[in-house]
Amino acid sequence: MKRRNFIKNTALTGVGISSTSVFSKSILNELNMTQKYPVAVATWNFQNATKMAGTMLEKGNSALDAVEKGVMVEESNLKNTTVGDGGAPDRDGNVTLDACIMSPDGNAGSVVYLKEIEHPISVARKVMEETPHVMLAGEGALQFAIQQGFKKKNLLTEEYEKAWKEWLEHKEYKPIINIENHDTIGMLCLDEKGDIAGACTTSGLSYKINGRVGDSPIIGAGLFLDNEIGGAVGTGMGEAIMKSVGSFLIVELMRQGKSPQEACEEAVMRTIKKAPNYKDFQVAYVALNKKGEIGSYCIHKGFSYAKFYKGESTDNLSDSYLDE
Ligand code: ASP
């Protein structure tokens, strides 16, 4: 029986959760790279971002600098309509951005509902480094960004403004699973010293209710790391990730001895157990441990993660998933 069918048949009975470890061995053989430093890994096929980060790591830059510069590539990419500049607006036409960053020393910074700033990840880093706080929101986050020298910019592209106006005609609000070339970028970097840093940045769900904030800027949900253990990032339906504090859970499971793959699997299983409508949304995780081992698991087929290792950039389709 194929792994995914086994899981499909057993997951909701509760047997699946305890049985995953038996099957994880084979997946571990596929995914375990037993690689040495450095490595950059990110949600979805954001290879330009992992290439930027990985190249920086190979030149000896820190994981923190690499992860910030890496995700900035997607924040500036107008073709990516769920991150940074060119991001999808909410249902009132506002582009509002969420981002967070964590450094190897356990420090964290975050911005939510930030408008008109192309690089929310860099503002999150400033929150982490220049204030005693972790999170700034909305108008206050914007004021802080401007004080820190960031320039305001209109982030709503003409194309997206047109699409939003068309959307207003029918106002359908439902998640669309695995649209190509989109979605939040969560990235983890392991540098040559063996330190891990992480970042997560998004414009959130298209046409969300004004004021809605998802998992991506929430430490423990869209991103968590402990430099003694490893890190995890999530993407997909933010509400499901927040309710299970998914990235924190994965790091804690790795602390208990699970591999990144096993930990991602268990986090997905916990999410779907509490969400009978899980077939209607995607949740995907990527985890990285101190040895450079990578794990990834998701609810639906179609999720891939990008990796940069030893000068090589790859798109790794997660053939490890729960259901089609
Ligand atoms: N997790 C993001 C959110 O809910 C969306 C995504 O990953 O595409 O805001």
From TrEMBL:
SUPFAM superfamilies: N-terminal nucleophile aminohydrolases (Ntn hydrolases)
GO cellular component: cytoplasm
Residue numbers binding substrate: R212, V213, G214, D215, T235, G236, M237, G238
InterPro entries: Ntn_hydrolases_N, Peptidase_T2
Residues the record marks as active site: T184
MF-aspect GO terms: hydrolase activity, acting on carbon-nitrogen (but not peptide) bonds, in linear amides
Site (Cleavage): D183, T184
PANTHER family: L-ASPARAGINASE, N(4)-(BETA-N-ACETYLGLUCOSAMINYL)-L-ASPARAGINASE
Protein name from the UniProt record: N(4)-(Beta-N-acetylglucosaminyl)-L-asparaginase
Species annotation: Christiangramia sediminis
